[in-house]
Amino acid sequence: MLYSRVTFTALVLIVYLGGSFGAFPPSIKICSRNDPELSRCFVESINDLKPRLATGKISDDFQIPPMEPLALSNVNMDRGAEFKATFSELLVSGASQFRIDNLKANLETLVFDFNLFLPKLSFKGKYNLNIKLLLLNIAGTGDLKGVFENSHARVKVLWEKYIKNGKEYLRIKKLLVRIQIENGQFDMKDLFRKDPVLSQVGNQFINENSRLFLDELTPGLERSLAETFKAMANEIMQRATFDESFPA
C-alpha cells in the first residue's frame, strides 16, 4: 500500500526529469534537449539530487516537501459494503533510497517512461477498516504501522505544451502508475474493537494473506497517487518555460 509513497518519489522525479531546472538553482544539473544521451543525463541529475530530496532543501531559496519522512494524504479503498478502508496521517520513511532504471525520455512525443525501485519503506499512520477477507470479517480503527520491501513501480508521463503570457510551458496531460509490492507486513492496533486476542489474530490473518489484501488496495492507490502527483508536478512546472527546462 504505502509503497506508493514510492510514487511521491516518482513525482519528484517527474518534476526534475521534466527539466524544470532552468529557473532553479545552479546546483541542479541541467540537461540539454540536444544531448544524445538525454536519458542518462536525467538519471545523473536525479542521483545528484538524492541527498537534497531527503531534506527537501534544494538550495537556500528553493525547498520542496521532504522525502524523509514523507507525509501523505488519505488513501481510500472501497469495493462495496464488504471492503472499505481509509488510511490517513501517513508518514513514510525510506523513499529517498529509490533507484531509477530504464528511463526513456522523448522530447518529440513528450513521453517519459521509467521504473522505480525502493528496497525498503517503513510507514505509520491511522486506519479505519471494515473488510471481509476470505471467510473472516475484520473491522477496527486505530494506529497503523508496517514495512514494504523490494517495491517496484512503472511510471509513464505524457506531457503537453501550452502557452501562457506568450511563452511556451509544459504540463502533465496524463500520469500512469503501475505498482508491484513484493513483500509487506502490517500491524494494525485495535482490530476487532480493542480485543487484543482477536486483534492479533486479525493482523496475522492479513499478513498471511497479504497478497489478497494488497491486490485489493493497489488500484485505488495507483489512481489516487497519479492524481495527486499530476497536480503537484504541474504546479511546480509553472516556474519554468519549455526553453528554460530544456535549453538547446
Automatic annotation (TrEMBL):
<protein>
    <recommendedName>
        <fullName>Hemolymph juvenile hormone binding protein</fullName>
    </recommendedName>
</protein>
<dbReference type="InterPro" id="IPR010562">
    <property type="entry name" value="Haemolymph_juvenile_hormone-bd"/>
</dbReference>
<feature type="signal peptide">
    <location>
        <begin position="1"/>
        <end position="22"/>
    </location>
</feature>
<keyword id="KW-0732">Signal</keyword>
<dbReference type="Pfam" id="PF06585">
    <property type="entry name" value="JHBP"/>
</dbReference>
<dbReference type="InterPro" id="IPR038606">
    <property type="entry name" value="To_sf"/>
</dbReference>
<keyword id="KW-0090">Biological rhythms</keyword>
<dbReference type="GO" id="GO:0005615">
    <property type="term" value="C:extracellular space"/>
</dbReference>
<comment type="similarity">
    <text>Belongs to the TO family.</text>
</comment>
<dbReference type="GO" id="GO:0007623">
    <property type="term" value="P:circadian rhythm"/>
</dbReference>
